[in-house]
Amino acid sequence: MRSLIDIGVYPFVVPFVPIVGTPLAQQAPPSSELMFELYQTIGAKLKQANLLSADMKAGCAKCGACSALSSFED
To answer: Distance of CA 4 to CAs 42, 45, 68, Å?
Structure first.
């Protein structure tokens, strides 16, 4: 994550959702505690680098619908 942010890449992080019929269908999704911890860490680094979702022009980081990451950029 740090390497990506350092070169200007917004690391759009979404929770894993198992899909029936795929090799990872039986894999459990991450806990909400783990995702909260990840979002806190990544959000703080994004803010420090001034690389914010609100400044994105397009794509997943701009939309943000699949992730709560933008809520942690404060």
So the answer is: 11, 11, 19
Question: Hey, what amino acid is at 43?
Answer: G
| Position 18 in a domain | no
Per-residue tens of pLDDT for the chain, all 74 residues: 999 999 999 999 999 999 999 999 999 999 999 999 999 999 999 999 999 999 999 999 999 999 999 999 98
CA distance 46 to 2: 9
Domain that holds residue 55: 2-12+30-72
Specify the pTM. Answer: 0.85
Q: What is the rounded distance in angstroms from the CA atom of residue 3 to the CA atom of residue 58? A: 22
